[in-house]
Amino acid sequence: MNLDYALLDIGAEPQGFVDDRAIADSIGLTRRVRQLERVSDQPQLVSAEPWEGEQVVPIAVVHDDDRGVWRMWYSTYAMNVERRPDIGTHWAMHLAVSDDGLNWRRDDVNVLKADGLPSNNLCVDEQGEPIEGPVTVFDEPHDPDPTKRYKLINYRPNYYLSYSEDGVHWRRAQEDPVWSNGAGDGLEETHFFMRDPKLGKYRAYMRVWMRHQTMRTISLGESDDLLSWSGPKIIWTAHDYYGVGSQIYGMTVFYDGGLYWGLPWMFYGDEPLDPNLRQNMRYKLAWSEDGVAWHALKPEMDVLPMGDPKQFDAYMVFSPGQVVQLADKNVVYYSGTNNRHDGSTDGICGVGIATVRRGGFVSLEAGADEAHMITHRTLIRGDHLTINARTESDGYIDVELLDDRGQYLKGLRFDVADRFTGDDTQHKLAWNGQHDLTSLRGQNVMLRFKMRNAELFTYGVGGDAATINAPLGPRPISAGRCPKTPVIDGQLNDDCWLDFDHCGVADQFKQYEQNVNAEVQTRVLMTYDDTHLYMAVHCDEPQIEKLSGDVIDGELSERTLDNDMIEIRLSGPDQGTFFNQLMVTPAGQLSHCWFSVDEGGSKILDKIEWEAKTSKVPGHWIAEIGVPFKVLGVEPVKPGDTWQTNIIRHRHVDGDETTSWSCLFGSVHRNELSGALVFK
Fold first, then answer.
1. Which whole-number Å values give the CA distances from 154 to 9, 180, 202, 421, in the listed order?
2. Where are the domains of the chain?
3. What is residue 507's three-state secondary structure?
4. Which CATH number is associated with domain 473-679?
5. What is the pTM of this model?
6. Tens of pLDDT along 614-654?
7. Which of 202, 206, 125, 123 has its CA nearest to residue 158?
8. What's the CATH number for 23-32+362-468?
9. What is the assigned CATH class of domain 37-357?
10. Long-range contacts of 196-204 (CB under 8 A, 24+ apart)
């Protein structure tokens, strides 16, 4: 079992199993790659009107909440313009509607008027002409300008942008193209545009020719506003493992389960030995962490199984429209045909629909024998954990949590885990009916699974956006310059400790093993001048009479670690894993250590070159500390400097108790869990 793998900081993204990065160890599990599943063997929409030509291509499907219906924009193409009465174009864009997203009817908008042309569902530009060329449509209902709710990019050649308020009547955003031929590695008519939900920008995956117009590749361009574009730059070419004569004709891309998924349209020319592949276009499956560097997944597999030659989508499938993402599944609306690319066969073309579970292309599968898996350390930024999983009727999944040292976490063991059965893409894990893990926020945990007759697709950290995105650890200590140097006497009656405008505060100390407020609290104030850092430590102590802190001739007792103590860790901006350890007991004992993870431990300094005084009063004890910057090995600070710091309290009046300003989650020497000290 490898527990030294890098920490997984997945935020709110699901963690899947397309590779082994999340798996520390497993036994009895099989990785399974799933295919798309057709909704029907029959097309959901086919060319049915004289003006629709031979080819039907879905370019956008959205649910219109205002109208309460699904809307599909689709393009049609006629090889012979004369077959399109009174339109006179090869391309045209149409609109269809549906109550369920499955059964479609043409939306009789009837805005294109021409002699001999019956009522129709054609969309038009500002001149009342059909929308021509390969097209992409975006529905953005939250655009502050309602006349720009719908956005359209079409290739004429060059790419032009248009806006619409109703999705039927379109007007150019500007006369000039937004993306011109000659840009980057070259523009082409075959494209796939998307709004990237992770980056918040638009991306275009474009076909680009190479080798004197004999080899198709995929390139990428990006834009923040659809008006200005970078690239495109070639990012992917078909590998030999796709077979002889393979070329990437285009690619459908969507973001799901923490990864970008690609459905490359793999085109085969006349080279393949298998005659069934010649002049075909098939979906393959690929994945990427950034949408730029792509990895083939099971390249020998067609992710949409090709059907019988008589089936409408037997020879070519492709989808320039964005994938529709529902709560439990991804829906691909695609154009399928049993025509070959070179036109050597004569068949039909229609709109097909295929689906895959959300996060569901890859799973870990357990059979009749119980299987086990433990994940690598995963940072908890939210307040609960989820799994995307399904079981057979006699199957189950149990989960327990371990800390980042592999130790069991109390109350989160198998014996109290709520067993999962059934099928759920967002199941909250619970133990004894409780799923709230707020106390673990900021901790690294490992999930241990045991499962039988079950599939696990992803696991993840849940919580609202405010919780997930909130900084881990405590609020930074903001220390200002003190107006007058304090007298280090343990009394805390100096002006600098009475004026909170310049004092940085560290309070709300946490328990040792979980991010929960300690029952007995500690409060620390910090300030500075040209030469020193000053600290005032106030320790609540309801059992003040039991305080320990032995002094032998002014030196540290051998039993120091058994004493009550405040430990202050300080690491300057250029000190890496090195930090100073300053320790003060209630009796006034002082200790100064240097600790470095890189150097493998600590060194106790023989000479104490800083001062501290302590005092006791009913209910609490106090330490007042002054440390020269030079003793800490740093230059005098200036406003804006930031250090790493943590303050740890060791309390022994009632057993052994450790608390800290920034939670240590049960591990003493964790400098990376420190908080920030900011000088203002």
1. 40, 12, 15, 48
2. 23-32+362-468, 37-357, 473-679
3. coil
4. 2.60.40.1190
5. 0.82
6. 999 999 999 999 999 999 999 999 999 999 999 999 998 88
7. 206
8. 2.60.290
9. mainly beta
10. 196/255, 196/291, 197/255, 198/255, 199/291, 202/226, 203/253, 203/291, 204/179, 204/229, 204/231, 204/232
